[in-house]
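Re-running 5-oxoprolinase subunit A to confirm reproducibility after the cluster update. Everything else is unchanged from the original entry.
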Amino acid sequence: MPTIDLNSDMGESFGRWELGDDETMLGVVTSANVACGFHAGDPEGILATAGAAHRNGVVIGAHPAYRDLAGFGRRYVDATPAELRGDVIYQIGALQGLARSVGATVRYVKPHGALYNTIAHDEKHAPAVISAIQDVDPSLAVLGLAGSPFVDKAREAGLTVYAEAFADRAYTPGGELVSRREPGAVLHDPQVVADRMVRLVETGTLEAIDGSAVRIEADSICVHSDSPGAVTIAQAVRAALESAGVEVRAFADAPSAA
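Result of re-run:
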């Protein structure tokens, strides 16, 4: 039976600003990329999300970002490698402490937004992120863009790496994500998204934005929690995968809830 992980970004509410339906989404996905405060999230909300994930048996991953709260971490920050390494260590450590307080464990790291896209091909910031993860805990897995040089570099450094595809994002013929600034970059039709993900698991390919087929080898599928209708999309994806005989399960084992 083919298997796939289903993940989503969570813990991104801030104070009175609520983003996403974490409680409902945690009943659908198998891994939660939890914000660490630099692009979104406050300690109380992050703690609540970590606790809810643990109760639902969902694996928790750190979702560190550039220090860009106003821009939701979607803007490039020209930090020095030393600055970025410190920022990533700080964020992972913060989430580890919050997770530990509810009996949970952080099992992997998935960089967020502009940081994620930058390190996919960057020669300066990618090594800083890899070094930060190694220094905090080399047993942490890494979730990165399928087919990107970052995935290969992290593996070469000795980290356990899982490749990721995006359910609700369009791809270029070269296997990269279409910029959010471009029309059609984000997909909103639950059935279209679900059908694409079944094709991905069954054939290892997706239809690129120009109609061509692009090969994507992925261990995990991400559904963005801040997209309109995110929960409906995630539910449609999971239902379609399971109907096609695909087992949806986390790539890392979660400890049982107390």
